[in-house]
Amino acid sequence: MSRKFRQWVDQYQDEAWTLARYLLKDASEAEDATQEAFVKLWKHRENVDPERIKPWLMKVTRNTCMDRLRRRRDEVEFQEYQTADDHGPMAGLHQTELGGWLKQAISSLKEPYRTLVILRDIYQHSYDEVANATELSLSQVKVYLHRARKQLREQLAEVRP
What we know:
Elements: H1 3-24, H2 27-44, H3 53-75, H4 97-108, H5 113-122, H6 127-134, H7 138-159
Helix pairs in contact: 1-2, 1-3, 2-3, 3-6, 4-7, 5-7, 6-7
């Protein structure tokens, strides 16, 4: 395995896994989807601009997850979100009650709102990077993020003491 590819895996695997985890709501399936995205990166490593690896990988990860969700929807209804998640880069967030509510609220968002919140608000990607990863226009990203944040505020207002 090339040293550069190994560096990309080390640098982006947690972020790709977390995106997949939020989208698929299943840790094991998120690992599979993340691995599949990295296999695609390996196959296309010569054709991907090294400056654009991260957006390319996030886009491929999201598309891989969407394909899996379509297949899953054909087989069975979506499973309940499991709030217990004691590994991965977001583990610390789950320690607080508010963190649990926030995670549940984000998970309840419909696509593409969920992906937009994860990429922009959790990972702090630029609007341009988010637009590229989701194949939406910049104005669509801004409008959808506004709507997603409004939904989150409404949901969290209901649980606030």
